[in-house]
């Protein structure tokens, strides 16, 4: 397989070498149409046409050919097809013919009997600039100057996956090697400049550029179109309100989780349906992971170091899902979080792994609300209130019970609040034979602080289940959920 | 050979050296920092008594919450007022 000549001049130098006026032809020997028109190129010598060859400087035989095996001229000219015949005047293109078209080649060249022995028309072939084998090198040559991160050479005999793990860059699972072409393709997913500072990342308070986030998004396995979501999640997670430092350092096992709102979720394929909290969907699996890898690699938040979790939980590898806004009978959670209708956004919140809640019997909203409230009391400890925040994910069959009875989101929240206001005798230390609990409570206590329980709708169509994702200490002494609109979505 | 881009902050951890320890505490001021974990004061009260028996000047400090880093002002205050600091880290 032929590679691009790496010692070639830069594209800008090639652009300067392009003839400012007259005819230009770009060909490659590997193309049957180019071989067909080879005799014609000799005739074009008479009108001072400049011929570039993409793959063989000796082709066509007997014609003065410029070597474009480095593809600089082809890139500068924006060649998609060979052969291409161009006319330039004053350094700008005035006409272009792709493939062999006898009448148009005659018209452009002014040679009346050009190609009399050739068929009238033949389609061309793809330009070598589009050959996947060389596209990466061309991308790096054209845009590599945008990359500022330190380049690390992996030795030829190193296994790539092992090498990246050995450098401490992974969460324990294999990562995708962040090569310059992959990072450049990732950066194409955002309109933001690679050197823009996205956030100052805890715990080490290191400024992270768009490029650094993109590198970690490659590691995580993201596609370029996920990058705007990852960038917004980074911004949200690095606010004082979210307190990623405390969440990383705490012995409690919660980690940062990402809920995606609005049309971007469907556009990039964030799962809000069956198995939304599980495996199998690339966006769900990699967006939260990218956020965690930035905190690890840029911020320095590593398990056993600043991350002091006693047990942790599998969601700390990365947890991301979307609300099923189209399927939900309720207004989306994003509305109460200040996201304008039609906009896309992320909410970053502290979360443990999901705990399923079964209720297959309740058909009245009152009964089902009591079931869910009972399950929510278990967050942290049933006798601690208020304390930890939580996320309740209602699956379609459960939210339908409320919607069919005329309960909207606000009614559901108010009914739940009433059920979650617990009497002091239930919460006191020693009550029910359990030493843990509140010290000398005299008033009923809410299980969650105001705003401490988020409710989203997601999940597959079958199953009278919901899920509780316990959080961490809510508010100023811990972490508050933070929502960011994705401006570029 | 594969070239990859460094995903880290590209800095070795800032080499922080621990200040040299004093030979003894005579005439020194020792700060006792309660990070606000439950029962941290029990440990620090006992330390304060033991230090006082040895004629050491003791100053007490507390973080507002253990869940967040120490306020910069508090850090500066301790550094200005004390020769040594002992932090009660666990509960």
Structural class, from helix and strand content of chain A?
alpha+beta
Straight-line N-to-C gap of chain A: 40 Å
- The helical percent of chain B reads 25-40%
Strand content of chain B: 15-25%
> Total strand count of chain A, please?
22
- What is the mean predicted local confidence, pLDDT of chain A? 94
Order of helices and strands of chain B: EEHEHE
Low-confidence segments of chain A, given as residue ranges, are 1-13
* Rounded Rg of chain B: 18 Å
Overall mean pLDDT score of chain B?
84
The biggest beta sheet of chain A is recorded as: 5 strands, mixed
Gross geometry of chain A: elongated
**Beginning-to-end CA distance, first to last residue of chain B:** 50 Å
Quaternary organization? heterodimer
Annotation, overall tally of beta strands of chain B: 4
Tally the helices of chain B. 2
Short structural summary:
The complex is a heterodimer of chains A (489) and B (91). With 489 residues, chain A is α+β, with helices and mostly antiparallel strands. Chain A has 17 helices and 22 strands.
Report on the structure:
The complex is a heterodimer of chains A (489) and B (91). Chain A has 489 residues and is of the alpha+beta class. Chain A is built from 17 helices and 22 strands. A 5-stranded mixed beta sheet of chain A has the order 3-2-1-5-6, with helices on one face. A 4-stranded mixed beta sheet of chain A has the order 14-13-15-22. In chain A, helix 8 crosses helix 9. Chain B is an alpha/beta fold. The longest helix of chain B is centred in the middle third of the chain and has 14 residues, at 40-53. The N and C termini of chain B lie far apart (50 Å). Residues 12-16 of chain B have low confidence and may be disordered. Chains A and B meet through strand 10 and helix 8 of A and strand 1 of B. Chain A: It comes from Actinomycetospora cinnamomea. Chain A: This is Thioredoxin. Chain B: InterPro entries: UGSC-like_dom (IPR057767). Chain B: Residues 1-23 are annotated as: Disordered.
